[in-house]
Amino acid sequence: MAQYELLLPKMGESVAEATVIKWIKQPGDKVELDDTILEIATDKVDSEVPSPVAGTLVRHLYREDEVVQVGSIIAIIDTEDIDEPTEVPFVNQIKEEDILELNAPAITEELPTAQDSLESESSHRFYSPLVKNIANQENISLPELEGLKGTGADGRLTKDDLLSYISNKPSKDSPKPLV
Questions:
Q1: Mean pLDDT within 103-111
Q2: How far is Cα 12 from Cα 102, in angstroms, rounded to an integer?
Q3: pLDDT digits (tens, 9 = 90+) for 34-92
Q4: What is the pLDDT of residue 31?
Q5: What is the DSSP string of 83-126?
Q6: How far apart are CA 37 and CA 119, in angstroms?
Q7: What residues does CATH 2.40.50.100 cover in the chain?
Q8: pTM > 0.90: yes or no
Q9: φ, ψ of residue 140 in degrees (nearest 5)
Q10: Which one of 68-77, 94-103, 151-160 scores highest in mean pLDDT?
Q11: Is the pLDDT of residue 145 over 60?
């Protein structure tokens, strides 16, 4: 038979000890899972300590009216199967045949975007992140932005300026006037 060491459970952050009030189970008694083993008292609450295993109570390690520190062994229970959670070490179960090998060449070159050209070309004019984002979505280059007249403070290009330009800009698919 295996022996289980019953610990005085933690009952709160500030509770460090408890007093044994009464042993409900005596040595030699059969104990079922969750049976009350003893009653305890703390400075905050009186409580019962249940058994986390089934078996036979072998002995008490403290007498009634004794003070016990939280985490101390308070009783020994004989049990055939200890239903304690056991810590299972992590085992890497990936097998070599589970790993797919890709023989495709890696793509190392990215196509430039309008945003890249906005950031890479130097400009002395300030553009807000919103204006840059809209210009990027509409594929408007930095030279094209530089040519727009801004109505904001110090001639800054505003969102409204850019949206107005986009709405008045002829689309690439529209036919050119025949004049």
A1: 55
A2: 55
A3: 999 999 998 888 889 999 999 999 999 999 999 999 999 999 999 875 445 444 343 44
A4: 95
A5: ----PPPP-----GGGS----SPPP------HHHHHHHS--SS-
A6: 73
A7: 2-79
A8: no
A9: -100, 125
A10: 68-77
A11: yes
Region for 99 from its dihedrals, namely left if φ exceeds 0, alpha if ψ lies in -120 to 50, beta otherwise: beta
Q: Name the segment(s) of the chain with CATH classification 4.10.320.10.
A: 114-167
Cα 15 versus chain centre, distance? 30
- Find out whether 116 and 141 touch, Cβ atoms under 8 Å: no
What token pair was written down for 112?
């430039």
Q: How many residues does the chain have?
A: 179
The predicted structure's pLDDT at residue 124: 73
**171 CB contacts (<8 Å, ≥6 apart)?**
none
Q: Indicate the average pLDDT of the chain.
A: 79
CATH for 114-167, among 3.30.230.70, 3.90.180.10, 4.10.320.10, 3.40.190.10? 4.10.320.10
The CATH number of the structural domain formed by 2-79 is 2.40.50.100
Q: Can you give the pLDDT at residue 77?
A: 95
Cβ partners under 8 Å of residue 19, min gap 6: 40, 41, 42, 65, 66, 67, 68
Residue appearing with tokens 């904001």: 152
